Amino acid sequence: MPRLITIPISHYCEKARWALERAGIAYREERHVQGVHRIVARRAGGGATVPVLVTDAAVIGESHEILAWADERTPGELRLLPAEPRERAEAEALCRRLDAVLGPAGRRLMYVHMLAQRPLAVAYNNQGVPAWEDRAMRWGWPVAERFMRRVLDISPGVEAGDEATVLGELDSIAGLLSDGRPYLCGERFGAADLTFAALAAAVIMPPGYGVALPRPEQLHTGTAGLVRRMRAHPAGRYALSLYERHRRVSPAPASVAGASR
Ligand SMILES: N[C@@H](CCC(=O)N[C@@H](CS)C(=O)NCC(=O)O)C(=O)O
Fold it and tell me: Which of 27, 36, 85, 161 has the fewest CB atoms found within 10 Å of its own CB?
């Protein structure tokens, strides 16, 4: 069975989980906290980031490549990537842009908010990780927080720019949808839709995400206001509707390694 190494809360990992589950591929998710993930990912043959998918034949360390791998094993009518080269190139370009712009900005924005809400952050972050990692994260939080701030390049006030970037990306998605198309790249739910919804999840916190996320009423007022604003944006509403319509319960449920759920 393929193994998927994740930081469970990560939206890039959510993208990989969603693609695998949609393809009906049974896999074992191995969840780790930030920092430990690097050791596990490298030991498995990947790089410094997760998700990493380990199969009998290959180690895949990029979420889009995991999506494409799963897609090759998906029945034709459910495929996420178009077969026609021009359409495929268009979908791939949109996915690349979402991966490069929305993904990092939305993630850093939400980390800045959640690092200020430590008990909630730890509880939601550590779902399904081994018990020792859960304990280490709780006891060693100041070290973990410093690691996350350094890796994400968090400096005072950086979130204002990230929020503007996220809103710019939501505007651009809403712009694409404004001609009445049902999905971002045409008539069918595709790779760009899945990528957009999974990466937008950092700021809209949709019900149906692969691990539990806080509800707005559990969050500090400023964070709750941010999530509600993002959800109310036309593109935020679109992402929520994709979760509702397309992030179904897995037909081949993932098994999760680890102790603390
Ligand atoms: N381009 C990569 C990005 C993945 C990525 O940034 N993963 C984050 C989790 S959201 C990560 O592993 N960050 C930890 C680190 O960089 O140490 C992909 O799409 O798979």
Answer: 85
